[in-house]
Amino acid sequence: MVQRRGAIQMSLGLIVAVIFAVVFLSLAVVWVNDFMNQLTHVTEDLIKEGKTKIRETFSETDQKFDIYPKEWTLKRGEELKMVAGVINREPDSLPHSFVINVIPTKSETSSWIDNSEFNTPLTAQSGSILDFPITLTPPRTTPSGTYVFYVIACMDKSFGECSTPDDQNYESAQYVRLTLE
Predict the structure, then answer these.
(1) What pLDDT score does 10 carry?
(2) Which of 63, 66, 64 is nearest to 54 (CA)?
């Protein structure tokens, strides 16, 4: 009977130890996953601030196209989320479609641009503002330095027709200067 009692206690002890191990392992996996996401996907999200700044610019000037920020510094592994804004100030007071494009000045930086966020023209009524989110994601292996991108706006054109600075027909090109540390 004593041996049986000892065996039951040992079995219960093993079960409790296994339960603690599974709970601890689950918590460790969640913590490591969260930690790795923070390491590999640090983001500078300036879209909300950018929308406010662009609206201030549009209310204080007669400018029709702007971006925010125009300059930014990133550490390796970070991405920049920024915004471009267009206001329909055409004298005909009609709705118009607008599209933007981000064009790198160095061809090796073209993979940094996620154009899925802004490759479809959007329509704005007269006096309306459109916001276009822009994400720039430099690879971790990118050398330190300064990288420049054109941001252009086109009116009543498709994304394919708005692919070089010469194609723009709505305000002048804006530039974003991205410095990698």
Answers:
(1) 66
(2) 66
Span 77-134, pLDDT tens digits: 888 999 999 999 999 999 999 999 999 998 888 889 988 878 889 999 999 999 999 9
- Give the CA diameter of the chain: 98
Instruction: State how far the Cα of 96 lies from the Cα of 153, in Å rounded to an integer.
Output: 12
For 133, other C-beta atoms within 10 Å of its C-beta total 15
Write down the H helix ranges in the chain: 2-40, 47-60
Structure tokens at 18: 């296994």
List of residues 6+ apart from 79 with CB closer than 8 A: 41, 42, 43, 44, 135, 136, 137, 138
Rounded CA-CA distance 27/25 in Å is 5
Count CB atoms within 10 A of the CB of residue 38: 11
Q: Note whether 177 and 71 are within 8 A (CB).
A: yes
Determine the straight-line distance between the first and last CA of the chain, rounded to whole angstroms. 72
Q: Check: CB of residue 94 under 8 Å from CB of residue 126.
A: yes
What does DSSP assign to residue 44? E
> For the chain, what is the radius of gyration of the CA atoms?
26
Specify the pTM: 0.73
